[in-house]
Design a protein that fits this description.
135 residues, alpha+beta, two-stranded antiparallel ribbon, 30% helix, globular
């Protein structure tokens, strides 16, 4: 997972908010269950525009990790503002730096996979790869 997502331009962010997020939140309110909290939208950006793959109402992992590294604001007041319905007035600030999270998972994940497997040769992961010599 990485942040910020270079594909999410300001124009695309507006489109996502107008066509995906706002209609979802409005529909929930219309059903009598207004949303307050963390809403993670898993998106696929296609040639035909953004497509919603999933919603999560929690901090997804590993997607959350790069966001927390970039978050300059204190998270707790932000969450309290969300619970109190005052998030629109909250000044959420971000570091400009890029953040990245790499996860190691068993072969086959997220489908069927072996559990309790051992990670071997971890030292090799940090060594530069040798390039083949040209003749």
């Amino acid at each position: 997972a990485y942040s910020p997502a270079p594909a999410l331009t300001p124009a695309l962010e507006r489109e996502v908010n107008e066509t995906i997020i706002a209609p979802t939140v409005a529909a929930m309110a219309a059903e009598g269950v207004p949303f307050k909290g963390v809403l993670y939208a898993g998106l696929m950006i296609t040639g035909a525009g953004p497509r919603l793959l999933e919603y999560n109402v929690r901090f997804g992992d590993p997607e959350c990790q790069p966001l927390m590294v970039r978050l300059m604001s204190d998270l707790l007041p932000c969450l309290i503002a969300a619970c109190d319905g005052e998030l629109k007035d909250f000044d959420l600030r971000w570091y400009e730096d890029v953040a990245l999270c790499v996860v190691m998972a068993s072969k086959g994940y997220p489908g069927a996979y072996d559990k309790d497997t051992e990670i071997r040769e971890i030292e090799a992961a940090g060594r530069p790869r040798r390039r083949a010599r040209r003749r």
